[in-house]
Design goal:
Layout: E1 37-39, E2 42-45, E3 48-50, E4 93-95, E5 98-101, E6 104-106, E7 144-146, E8 149-152, E9 155-157
Antiparallel strand pairs: 1-2, 2-3, 4-5, 5-6, 7-8, 8-9
Length: about 200
Amino acid sequence: AALTVTNSVTLEADASKIEHTGATSFTISSSGTDSSVNIESVNVKDGVVTGLTALTTTALTAEAVTLGADVSTIEHTGATSFTISSSGTDGSVNIESMNVDAGVVTGVTALTTNAVTMGADASTIEHTGATSFTISSSGTDGSVSIESMNVKTGVVTGLTALTTTALTAEAVTMGADASKIEHTGATSFTISSSGTDSSVNIE
């Protein structure tokens, strides 16, 4: 069956509805010149929805979602979890310049956070840039702790042992009751001075 109305349909009841009870599908479309459909302030044309100020839904399938407000939010208010994922060939998700693929985040130029937790059995913080890598603190204490070791204004404390091929420092202070400098290499061990006096004092 079909209903053809020339101009408009007015529903005068306080609570009105248009209900489809058929088995297959329900379509609202326009074959006019503009070919769009208005639902209050929302306009639908060729699959593009405009004029939507808020959307509450349990699922959304779309090729693209554009948020035109000056300040926009995608908010999850459910009790369990909120997942953004891609099932495409590449399988990654882009958030501006940042890319997330199988738990790997790339394209981050700066990260501001209270804490970073790495749950893998073996984790790495790696710098691949061309210049330098700095870990610093601008807090009140101004120090950086790496496990029991503390670094503050170039002074390292809490170091119980140091294995290295080279060490450059203005001074090395060993605070343990019994301390030693040990060479385990195969060739030789040299203590020397390249200063103006060029001498070495041992006590």
